[in-house]
Amino acid sequence: MTTQTAFLDHNSTTALKPQVLEAMLPWLTQPTGNPTSRHVFGRNAREALELARKQIAACVGVQASQVVFTSGGTEANNFAIKGITANLSPSQLLISGIEHPCVTRPAQSLAWHDWKVATIGVDSQGVIDLAQAEQALSARTGLVSAMLANNETGAIQPVAELAQLAKAHGALLHTDAVQAFGKIDVNMSALGVHAMTISSHKIGGPIGVGALIVDKRVDIAPLLHGGGQERGLRSGTENVAGIIGFAQAAQLAMQSMASRHTTVKQLRDQLESGLNRLGAVIFAQQAERLPNTSFFAIPNIEGETLVTALDKVGFAVASGSACSSDSTEPSHVLLAMGITPDLARGAVRVSLSDSNTSEEITQFLAALQQQVQRLKGLNAVAA
Amino acid sequence: MTTQTAFLDHNSTTALKPQVLEAMLPWLTQPTGNPTSRHVFGRNAREALELARKQIAACVGVQASQVVFTSGGTEANNFAIKGITANLSPSQLLISGIEHPCVTRPAQSLAWHDWKVATIGVDSQGVIDLAQAEQALSARTGLVSAMLANNETGAIQPVAELAQLAKAHGALLHTDAVQAFGKIDVNMSALGVHAMTISSHKIGGPIGVGALIVDKRVDIAPLLHGGGQERGLRSGTENVAGIIGFAQAAQLAMQSMASRHTTVKQLRDQLESGLNRLGAVIFAQQAERLPNTSFFAIPNIEGETLVTALDKVGFAVASGSACSSDSTEPSHVLLAMGITPDLARGAVRVSLSDSNTSEEITQFLAALQQQVQRLKGLNAVAA
């Protein structure tokens, strides 16, 4: 709740945009119905909910009836992995080596349901190896899951190409587009995927809302059974205010995408020029990346230590995936890229938004240099 | 969003209390961190989240570490049924005949995992038959699930007695306390249950938040896998603002419970006196009930028709469970009580809060009488 610290960790979560709160407030201040109720309160809630569904659908190039609202990206990814495989006979489930834990762990949970989980590797820039994917697809494969942009490196993945390969081998493809959505153009029809996860709180919307967009030809089993909401695919009273906030945030993100891209790209260029001068290794720098993300390490300095030191002097950054539980293991994404564990332990992630300024970057670089010098001094004493 | 209609459907959802919104607003207007992040924004979010957990725990007489936050009652019930049975060898799953679909449908989904689902009947007042339960427990039973108060009739169930029976037979007991929580005293330790579901939006908190309270000796498998939040039991970024709102609503509900009980009980007595004069059959009237709930039928008049007619003249009531999908089937709760399908089709539910007034009840009864006379006239013409 402090405002003195510069927030440079927008891939972990984002502040609610004022226009989003404005759109939500009528549903938080006036009597609201359960969208299942048939009286006027219920019908009004239903109408607002269905408008939000159309707005979200338009943002990703699908029909409203394909949007299944969930409690967030984690639920949507669990729903996709467990719900699609539940209606297929067990075979191979193929995931990339750089997926978020909310894809890898649901995948692992299927192992005792006779599914065989296999991993597609990535190259040194953190990009999925399509040749390896094609080879893996020679084994009978029910589902492939590959993220659209990596949350740690920002590297954008060849999901459209992978979807074509999957189709040619009779497999379905799910993509976790949580980090890509709102930062780059995400059109589900153009990608040709069968299911896609998006989330609200990464784009200035409220936490606790997301969606799985599902191709109508995909037979998916619900994860949450009950009252039959969301066409029977996701039971539970719909979070009307949250969903309206999500739709508003998505629309704002679409409107500002081009200008935001330019702004954050300039800030990141400024950042990475400075990082180069400090001798940092920038991961996935040769890959096509999200414009806001920079993942780097200063050799021989622990990322955790640096994050803690930077926090003390007013800069909020991440050491790896902020979405996973406390763990001092080096990033699985970096290890998949062939980065040594030693260097990977140095990883620091800066993720920007257009609320950040060039001045903040200048100050951040100065603080980083100071902390690096201090820590190198400590290392020298210790050695 | 209209305020001209009297809202008499508080068991379906409730308006957010102003004090709840006030507690949530700092988390919706200022930069907020992901509680997993280690920087100051993340730590502040974590601290607020853990305070809310303590507050919820205190409301139900448990330790904070027993509270697992979910996206609502439906997720918590799915988590309980699927998560507890996942770590037991298949046997009998016993549920009452009056459970919400978000208990019955997860239970049915276990059938192909070799679990046998059996149902405990209720008496004519909608109260679980303990003798029948004991008989059913003679078959090896892993889990019993029985709600604490029924959402349709308001009938309070002998869950503490059932928990003792279950324990004596080596079975675990889960209770869905969604409708009871905030309306009557709910103490998990006193009930002696192993898992308990509560929800936020039934008590003036936001939609999209709930919790499963779990006895530490119960080995429960997660439903949502991922980053390992909630001690690994429920992954997904914690809905900080929503959880803070839930805790605030729960505390307010505890503070006002006694006075609210008196107020809504008086309103319901006024209502039911009038209903008796109109020849209504009041369901579960001899049972110990939630003080706010009245479920009744006017013989030979369809509940759906009455609800629609009352909505047009400014009264929002429900025809049955507002939480289930569109269905013209008579209430399964009433059928379980031995009510004839014909009478059950007449069911109308009025569920009050202390925001309702005696004047509203007077006006409602007048409107009901008018609609009943009109519909009886139509029936007479049709006959």
Can you describe what's shown?
- 2 copies of one chain form a homodimer.
- Chain A is α/β, with parallel strands linked by helices and about 375 residues long.
- Chain A has 2 domains: about 5-15 and about 255-380, Aspartate Aminotransferase, domain 1 (Alpha-Beta Complex); about 20-250, Type I PLP-dependent aspartate aminotransferase-like (Major domain) (Aspartate Aminotransferase, domain 2, 3-Layer(aba) Sandwich), CATH 3.40.640.
- Helices cover about 40% and strands about 15% of the residues of chain A.
- Chain A has 13 helices and 12 strands.
- In chain A, the strands form 3 sheets. In chain A, strands 2-8-7-6-5-3-4 form a 7-stranded mixed β-sheet, sandwiched between helices. In chain A, strands 9-10-12 form a 3-stranded antiparallel β-sheet. In chain A, strands 1-11 form a two-stranded parallel ribbon.
- The first copy, chain A, is globular, with a radius of gyration of 21 Å.
- At the A-B interface, helix 1, helix 2, helix 3, helix 4 and helix 5 of A face helix 1, helix 2, helix 3, helix 4 and helix 5 of B.
Write the layout of secondary structure elements.
The structure is a homodimer of 383-residue chains.
Chain A: E1 6-7, H1 18-24, H2 26-29, H3 40-60, E2 67-70, H4 73-86, E3 92-96, H5 101-109, E4 116-120, H6 130-136, E5 141-145, H7 159-168, E6 172-176, H8 188-191, E7 195-199, E8 210-214, H9 240-277, E9 281-282, E10 293-297, H10 303-312, E11 315-316, H11 332-336, H12 341-344, E12 347-351, H13 358-382
Parallel strand pairs in A: 1-11, 3-4, 3-5, 5-6, 6-7
Antiparallel strand pairs in A: 2-8, 7-8, 9-10, 10-12
Helix pairs in contact in A: 1-9, 3-9, 4-5, 9-13
